[in-house]
Amino acid sequence: MKIVFLMLLLISLFLFPDGICMSLAARPSVVSIGSILRFNSTTGGVTAVAIRAALEDINSDQTVLNGTTLQVDMRDTNCDDGFLGMVEALQFMETDVIAIIGPQCSTIAHIISYVANELQVPLMSFASDATLSSIQFPFFVRTMPSDLYEMAAVAAVVDYYQWKIVTAIYIDDDYGRNGIAALDDELTARRCKISYKVGFPSNAKRSELLNLLVTVSNMESRVIVLHTGADPGLKLLSLANGLNMMGNGYVWIATDWLSSYLDANSSVPAETINGMQGVLTVRPHIPKSKMKSNLMSKWSSLSKKYNHSDLRLSAYGFYVYDSVWAVARALDAFFDDGGRISFTNDSRLHDETGGSLHLEAMSVFDMGKRLLGKIRQVNFTGASGQVQFNAQGELIHPAYDIISIIGNGVRTIGFWSNYTRLLSTVLPEDLYSKPPNTSVANQHLYDVIWPGETAQKPRGWVFPSNAKELIIGVPNRFSFKAFVTLDNATGKMTGYCIDVFTQALALLPYPVTYRFQAFGNGTENPHYDQLVQKVVDNEFDAAIGDIAITMSRTQALDFTQPFIESGLVILAPVKKHITNSWAFLQPFTLGMWCVTGLSFLVVGVVIWVLEHRINDEFRGSPRQQLITIVWFSFSTLFFAHRENTMSTLGRGVLIIWLFVVLIIQSSYTASLTSILTVQQLDTAIRGLDDLKNSDYPIGFQVGSFAQEYMVKELNISRSRLKALGSPEEYADNLKKGPKKGGVMAIVDERPYVELFLSTYCKVAVAGSDFTSRGWGFAFPRDSPLQVDLSTAILTLSENGELQRIHDKWLKTSDCSADNTEFVDSNQLRLESFMGLFLICGAACVLALLIYFGIMLRRYLRHEPPPESISAEAGSSKSKRSLKRFFSFVDDREPPKQKRSLYLSGNSSMPTTPTSNVDIERPVRPIRNGGVVHIES
Known about the structure:
By secondary structure, the chain is α/β, with parallel strands linked by helices. The chain contains 30 helices and 36 strands. An eight-stranded mixed sheet has the order 7-6-8-9-10-15-16-17, sandwiched between helices. Strands 25, 26, 27, 28, 29 and 30 form a six-stranded mixed sheet that branches. The protein has a five-stranded parallel sheet with strand order 2-1-3-4-5, sandwiched between helices. The chain starts with a helix and ends with a strand.
């Protein structure tokens, strides 16, 4: 048997030398990975235990590496001293390892990522710095969620509680700066912002931290995001507690460093935990799984075994544990695919004489790219949940727990998941099986006990002592001062617009320090385009008042939601009583009267034509027939016609005509009633068309956009326009009229007109609004105040406060009650009834065509065959035929005879005619060319 085995072995070596060598070399007995940690930190200690736990489980599982032992070489680095940490990390890279777990510090991770790219060694890092990406560093593999997702969760919490400004305190290194930059982007996307950010070095002294907190306490924001490490973060919270910055009104949100510290430390001093009551923090969400339960059950013994008995398992431990398993599974697939572990020295790497880094000792992992590909393809359920990477090299479905510190422990108040990017009290893993619901209305968190042991949500801001004061331009009006006015004695601004602005500001979730600055001299109304331009030029931070939102202004500025509707309307004088004796003719225009009268006559003629041959009521002498036509036509106006129609065509035309008469009569009655009961405009301008087509002078308010609108949009000559500065001038010019140097009408915005009509009763609005605009507050482009004030104005509208402010300043008097009917006294025009007349005309024409077609058929049936005639006699013959046809049509049609014959006995025919013959009318002979025809 031995001889046979040796022979088979020799044959195999001869036939498949590469395959046998690959099989023997692909599964080494020991494979080394490296780990760069900070041993004297909480995260470093938890990570070291998690790596050892993973190695034990992997090496004891024969199904993973198939007999290959995985071992780790751990090195300590100093994260506080970036330079020494980088040197230590570079020295570690001299060892031949196929993958590296860590580093945990973002500063060192940036440097090592460059080296890992050159040496083609996969870097399984749990550094959360968002700027570390596989695009820049292909061999960088992040094994826990990045700060992009963490900051999205923090921003979601800020937005959920409707805080708009926050203060950010961060450690001044790559981790801190880049994390706050990510937070700033997320807050901006939710129309929030960081109003103040301050960084500090990792070795900051206590006095420096105290000065930092004092500065923060003087800021307007009371929502503070703390993005640091555990040691400086705990020191800051302790100092803040001593400065009474952990009481009512404050909100503290710490990033995941705090949850990691609390999870990992079994004994937190009572003084420390008491100083952070009500603080919110986030923690990477770890779903329940079998591997998680197994790891937690044996963690106590493992931590004792590796000299970290004071540490408990935190989220970092789960992710690091899965990182080692990901390397092991990738190695198994790597070996199955024929991968081999070999290193090659790079000639470009060498030290100068006496160097201590020994760069020439660094080797390139020959098949590092293949192992990296296997790592990115792993897909398994680990202790941290689903371990699978997306196209960007990030873990799929990152999620966070939202935690509140209360008493001696923590309470989970909700979750944030990147799957929906919303806050919810539903576990994220329960959402993955459903389509993502991204409606903000579905967000919900449990109640929180805030700092100061209060359940009431903090406002999140106070009025700061050093905030920038906004300069807000306000028009200093000469007329219509109910909208906005300046008290020269006190310098105080009051009015409808001022109250709307101040009430809206009171609803904002942050303070706004401002100062009103009057624009204009008060002797005439200022030009509002100039006021708006000062906001564009940054002379004013905003402009409030009765500012109309026009298209040209919105191209340069942002306006809030309109707080009052404002369209251009026409003011004209009115008279309350009709003195004209011919008022009954006013409902219809001249053209309408003419067409209506003509229609009566036409319909009468048509009915006469259709009824003349068979209806005796439409026959007689020409004078009688003319009287019948006129009488029948106009009697239908009152539905009092006494002549009966006998023909089907006549009845059809009459039904349609009576419907037309009903509409005309109803419209006339309604219009006449309006004329006799409602005050009428005593002006030639009764609407927009008359305004454009006339040559009369037109008034407008000084400073209003109405002047440019009429010139540019309505093409009204500028010479026709007259500027008016006060309600008194309005009334005086309307009273004078154009013949005495006044105006025929005034074009102004509706709010001014309503206020004017509350005092002056002899004018009214002609027609309806011919623009649809509103008043709003003007802000520079992309101003957050514009959006927030728009929301506040909508709130004022919904709760009725906007109407109360309106009634306070713009309440109309009894005089305006008569003027609230906006009269449009345009007469009823022909265009409004053209459809009815066309329908009636079409019915008449169709009925006549059908009638003459029937008559022509009957005439031809009684006409004898044409005789042979010469060409000379053709013309006279045609005339005689036409004359005979009209004579045929004009003749009375004889009635149909009714005969009844009594049959007696068995004879088939009666011997004598019956005496019971009913003859309604005598049979009339029809003469036709000397031949007598009896028509029955």
